[in-house]
Amino acid sequence: MAFTMSKVPFMPNIRTFPLSGSEIESRFTEFLTGLRKRRADTKPAEPTAADADDDELFYMRDAFDLSARDHSKIRRRSKRLVANQEARSGLAHLKAEDRKRLKTVAEGVLLNGPSTVHAVDEMASRLMHEMPWMQPVIKPIWQDARQHIARGGLGLWHRPVIVAGPPGIGKSHFARRIATLSRLPKLTIDVGGGSAGFAVAGVQRGWGSAAPGRPVETMLSEGIGNPVVVVDEICKAGNCYSGTGASTSIVTSLLGLLEPVSAQFWECPYFNVSFDMSHICWIMTANVISSIPAPLRSRCRVIELNGLADEDLLKFVEHQAAQRNLGQEDVDVVARLISAYPPGHPALNLRVVARHLDDLEAVACAPVRH
């Protein structure tokens, strides 16, 4: 498959990133030394009187080496220039270590994923082959990705999607496969964990637990602007509280990130800087739809799936057996276990089948005893 790795701006309101004082001093020093050398090549050096005005041009000296007074002027001018740059950049409120982190994406972030419509088709074909029961989810994502590339878009993109269905049908596995096939980082935020709102948006400065949200952390560390973000069990969404009393709701945190226009200029509560979060591939999972708030459902494509049929489980077993280098006899063992359960039994899911495969793989890899 053909993949793209093109950069797009990540901080839309930051036009210039301020240089550090040491960088400016180095440039001034290099320029002044070169200037004096060039002048010395064209005419003899002439003595000049010292002048205390900081805004005057530097004068040529007999020697190329800069004097203590030259270095003092450079430091003073660099300090003023840094202050002016920071005031214009919108980053003056940040600590030096945070500015350093943002500087890694000053030139933008990469958008990874299929670069042609044909590459999108190939990815969808692989997903259909591996997980045919996920076709109701694969098809709209496939269509979104095709349309995005056809319009000149970069990387993988699709509308936010909520995948609802019983546990163990492969909702999280599906998201992981999309990320792998698109060469994108994947992160999972578990709503049942109790602090998902803070994990999505982050916590503003002033609180003991202040930190960026996990999507921003991932984008900064990976330099990727369209990671696959899985919000697991969104049906359990509610308010959560930090140890210092700050509260947030994951629904509130998500609404601004899922709306295309607001996501382009989403303001991070930790950095207090606007980021373009509109390229994120959002996949939310749920067991039931009825408990998901309406404002969240209205911003997503909602897809309901049924439980797995025996043939779906067997397809999964065959694919996983090939990945694990297991033989046909191992496939037959798991197939007999599947057929032993009555239709609709809770054990007929991918988690149970995967555990059976783990056991068979452990036996196959066990040392032979003599």
TrEMBL record:
InterPro entries found in the cross-reference section:
AAA+_ATPase (IPR003593), ATPase_AAA_core (IPR003959), Lon_Prtase (IPR027065), P-loop_NTPase (IPR027417)
Residue ranges crossing the lipid bilayer per the database entry: none
Note the Pfam families from the entry: AAA
| Any GO molecular function | ATP-dependent peptidase activity
Give the GO biological process terms: protein quality control for misfolded or incompletely synthesized proteins
Q: Where is the AAA+ ATPase domain?
A: 157-308
Q: Which PANTHER family match?
A: LON PROTEASE, LON PROTEASE HOMOLOG, MITOCHONDRIAL
**Know the name of this protein?**
AAA family ATPase
